[in-house]
């Protein structure tokens, strides 16, 4: 078996004096779904564009299946990119948009239409092959863009914020389709997003970037459950960061429980209560002016309801505390 792993070796991108990507190394396993997650400006798109070959590497190298692709043109790398805006040709039919790269390669019409037909079937758009892009919904346009990227048979599909142009309902549906497609094709997807929920829903592996470097990488559940830094804990959400005599820790808001005032690990004053449907979020203040949120299952909360201003106790299992390194 030939491993199709993608490897970044100390990859750096400089734009003048700006260091957009700072000596990033990472191993993307073959046939896996990876999300590059981080706030705007942290270097996600630059990293993706260097992998695609749409941006030169300032330093370091990019290997695919052991081959150094750092200086190859985009079409020769074994990668394909799906852009945020889809960039469909407005005057070409859906079929011709999908077949476009094959036309550029000089492949004759029957063959390229045959392949385009297969791709349109894959994304469930066969019935719309003769339409123009502006006769399609946002979700359909996105599937055309996917088919157009996949027709080159890439080993790695690169997606830059592919769902950001869709409304929230469609976004959730399309992410399920992306996940299914990746499983069917058994190729690697590298998907850039700034949404932690999107990354958790999709990724085998989440790579969290901040300030041009990788802050933490690992299986989605590990990164969410056991953030290593304050930044990751706060960016992933659903965590408290607290300072205790032993150091700084992250603890999931749903791992904090409320008790009677004298029975908790710490005493707390309730600042605010927010009903969230399945849960109630109880914002408190503990010693040292630190805010701690306890996310309580709604039935548990309403069995012993509280109000802002109440003094309570908070407790947790020591195993739920994750020490932070920065
Ligand atoms: P992200 O995709 O995470 O939002 P980018 O990779 O687009 O981040 O940008 C990382 C940094 O590089 C930012 O500070 C951005 O302003 C800068 N940058 C991106 N593209 C260019 C460019 N073509 N020229 C100059 N600076 C750029
Ligand atoms: Mg970007």
Could you explain how this protein is built, in words?
This protein is an alpha+beta fold. It has two domains: 6-225, 3-Layer(aba) Sandwich (Rossmann fold); 238-323, Beta Barrel (OB fold (Dihydrolipoamide Acetyltransferase, E2P)). The chain is built from nine helices and 18 strands. The chain has helices spanning 44-52, 94-104, 109-122, 138-150, 168-185, 196-202, 220-225, 230-236, 298-303; strands spanning 6-15, 18-28, 33-37, 59-64, 67-68, 79-82, 156-160, 188-193, 205-210, 213-219, 239-244, 247-252, 257-259, 266-275, 279-286, 290-297, 311-315, 322-323. The strands form four sheets. The chain has a six-stranded mixed sheet, sandwiched between helices. Strand 1 (6-15) and strand 2 (18-28) form a beta hairpin. Helix 2 (94-104) crosses helix 3 (109-122). The longest helix has 18 residues, at 168-185. The two termini are 40 Å apart. The mean pLDDT is 94. Bound molecules: adenosine-5'-diphosphate (ADP) and magnesium ion (MG). Adenosine-5'-diphosphate is lined by residues 15, 18, 20, 38, 40-46.
Number of domains: 2
Mean pLDDT: 94
Share of helical residues: 25-40%
Q: How many strand elements?
A: 18
Shape: elongated
- Alpha-carbon distance between the two ends: 40 Å
Quick one: biggest sheet? 6 strands, mixed
Oligomer: single chain
Number of helices: 9
Cofactors, ions and other ligands in the entry: adenosine-5'-diphosphate, magnesium ion
Rg, rounded, reads: 24 Å
**Order of strands, widest sheet:** 6-7-8-3-9-10
Helix-strand pattern, N to C? EEEHEEEHHHEHEHEEHHEEEEEEHEE
> What structural category arises from helix and sheet content?
alpha+beta
| β-strand amount | 25-35%
CATH homologous superfamily (4th level) name of the largest domain = P-loop containing nucleotide triphosphate hydrolases
Which ranges are low-confidence, i.e. pLDDT below 50, for 5 or more consecutive residues?
none
Q: Using the coordinates above, name the CATH class of the largest domain.
A: Alpha Beta
